[in-house]
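For the sake of transparency, this paper describes our internal protein records without simplification. Such a record has a labelled line for the sequence and another for the backbone structure tokens. Nothing more is needed to write down the fold, since each code stands for a local backbone conformation. For reference, a complete record is included directly beneath this paragraph.
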Amino acid sequence: MKSNELTYSMPKIIGPNARVLILGSMPGRVSLAQQQYYANPRNQFWTILYALFGEKYGSVSYAEKIDFVIRHHIALWDSIHYCERKGSLDSAIKDEEPNNILGLLNANPEIRAIAFNGSKSFAVFKKHFKLTVPPDIALIKLPSTSPTPSRYPKSVEEKIKEWAIIKNYI
């Protein structure tokens, strides 16, 4: 691998008493360019999260989004620290190196669940960490909020119902 072909994830977002860690795989180009999680306006992440907590989502600044997740005891990060990838598709990810998720869990023992935003995040986590995660931490694979169509498309309403499980751990 050449260093100029590597894509790096962004810093984690975590406040005191985070109870749910939401892991994406690797931010897309729009998010990386803006240094904002789920910045692509077609990504349904923020719409789903705000709906889960019955809060209005409209023209909200990124700082307000971060305050929102911290207030609801949610941390954001990615399974992958860096990888080789052209474009934004998870299917284009190669030679990934994971983030130090176990270190994050050890430093934040109040985390009770890891919610995976899509299949790639979960697959990378399983490959590197599944056998070393404390058994009292729930691992929850959720449908991707990505704007890229999946093999099993779901409506936003269906995704909200599935994502609602994270509230059990907050």
The mean pLDDT is 89. The longest strand covers residues 20-24. Helices lie at 29-34, 45-52, 62-71, 101-107, 119-128, 156-163.
